[in-house]
Amino acid sequence: MNPTAPLLLETRNLHFRFGSRPILHEVSLQVEAGSIYGFLGPNGAGKSTTMRLLLGLLRPASGSVHLFGHDLGRHRVALLNRVGALIENPSLYDHLTGRENVEATRRLRGVPAHRTAEVLALVGLTDNAHRPAREYSLGMRQRLGLAIALLSDPDLLLLDEPTNGLDPNGIMEMRELLQRLRQEHGKTILVSSHLIHEIEKVATHVGVIQQGRLVFQGSLPDLQRLQTGRGRLVLETQDADTCRNLLPGLLAGATVAGPGTLRLPWLSQEHTAEVAAALVAAGQPLYGLRLEQPSLEDTFLHLTEEAAR
Length: 309
Fold this sequence. Notes:
single chain, 309 residues, Alpha-Beta Plaits, 15 strands
């Protein structure tokens, strides 16, 4: 995290339990202003519970939630006026049009009338605003829910699994919309998901939760750097067993993945060069040499599996 960047959202040692069953343990989120924070974890890890705590819908057993530098427990109404949220599926009136759904909430909240047209345009629903919500696709319903969340022009958006159940086109539309909200409208966004491959396309920062514990938090490059130490060097040669026997020192940690394929942990560029030179000097043909890096999804699974153990 950037120590000089202001935090729009922060939790401090957040604990929560349902009855006697602990759900969250010392969760300390730090969401920087102007970021898209991807809150990642398997289903049941504690994401939705955390989101409800952030909105004051649940009370923590201990710890605190701070929005815009202030304690949510002491200034709930004033702080939540600056927050827009979409938790699970939006609650819509299916018999009303898209515009009428937005209007109903606008009047209830006392938001200026011009915001209805603005938020519908922002989420790309102007041309379909006259249609009843029951005719909307799931992706359109999610965007309509987001339009309602944007009515008060909030500084912070909290979105719980906004792409859940969407088809590829709907996922792409939502992803592009979130990027536009951040880049063109200055929104800070916390978006929860269990899909790392979607989050990596949109997030600037990531937090990974497993079994109620935050097991990683940092920028997307920080998460990507975790991959470096887990890379594997793959050697393609004529006889893998012969090579390993000829160079027991350099290839002690190697495994035979095929008659002519060796895999060993990647240590450094210098070690790679030393292995290649030693094979050639030993008279062994070197047909291929490459570094295999784990994907971000592999890294995510590694983090959550380690936490589970």
